[in-house]
Amino acid sequence: MSDNDTIPLHPSSQSDIDEIESLIYATPSATVLPARPPSPPRATIPISVPVSTSPTPPSPSPVPPSIPITVVPTAPVATASSTRVTIGSDGFGSPPNTLTEPVWDTVKRDLSRIVSNLKLVVFPNPNREDPGKALRDWDLWGPFFFIVFLGLTLSWSASVKKSEVFAVAFAVLAAGAVILTLNVLLLGGHIIFFQSLSLLGYCLFPLDIGALICMLKDNVILKIVVVGITLAWSSWAAYPFMSAAVNPRRKALALYPVFLMYISVGFLIIAID
Amino acid sequence: MDRTQVVEENYANPKTCLFHVLFKGAALAFYILSALFVNNFVIIFVVTVFLSALDFWVVKNVSGRILVGLRWWNEINDLGESVWKFESLDQESLARMNKKDSWLFWWTLYLTAGAWVILGIFSLIRFQADYVLVVGVCLTLSVANIIGFTKCRKDAKKQLQQFAQQTLANQFTSSLRTAFTVV
Known about the structure:
By secondary structure, chain A is mostly helical.
């Protein structure tokens, strides 16, 4: 790796070397990204390798006009740049900003993303009108927790064959989510695979609540009522996203398997004793 | 001479290296040992998969950045398309990355995936479908990280090449070329 203290071969080239050095430090390798409304800022981890020699560019780095670099310099100051195209890459290329951010912040950020995704999918809110934009920041942690929780609840409720119940519940839910997503994709729908997985996982939240209640109270009538309510809630949660993804004439084809899966999970909850 | 040998670099981030290895090792150890001690499949499943998921998160968000200076994630842009984003430190910092750190990072990733494959084969041989499920989930998480970081590293190299080519093409004084030959 070049040692930047090299003595230039010719006195006049020092300025060129300076120019190049400023280029190296000023333009981090960032991908060019389309402008989009900022998503929740992503946590960045302090790099403990000392990067003391790289000066923080004071403003969105002015690229010397002679060099047509296509990378977009990321703004070190969060609010300064109007061309701040991505939150994700900021801070990573300009270390001093994020060196102070600890791991706990990343954890908090991920947790808050789970909560916001949950609120978006399961509870009534204005963003449901535009399903394409919702769940833009998909994550699979929420679905993971909900599926495991549902499996655990079912397993606890079962008096025999607990392990099988758990394994079956987990496998059915996971495979079901994947198959439902494939179903939408094969029907010519426009949905991202992981976004749909994430959505179907979050829509399990009402069924989780239903299963929990059923586990605590063992009354059959109560179970049927509770499962019916939570089933309707789950279906209502999943409906706009799934139906928006496909051609209107094929809406029923896409939605019917979703209802079927939730109904079968509901039966599983009722039938477990 | 002992003096010169002491100068070789040590791990620059021992705590991160520890965490990087900790959850992987814990998941594998728990899975292997639990077959001997714990009768309850549910516990084995949940704990192993949870440790694997934690490991996935740690590798992706913490040790990837600190040990090798790479990061990858997926975003959905305005057009509703899924875009994989890769990010790497600039050349200066990348070159300063501790060699031992990155060696540990990559090799433990590969070894863990290999270990899960072997364990999966054992489970298959014994026809234990539920254990295959556990191994399948853990393997998926490991492989996802491997693929993500490998793509990220390739992307970083490609960007580096592009950057170097562009600057080379525009600067044609000989002193600049010598400044860049070692990039």
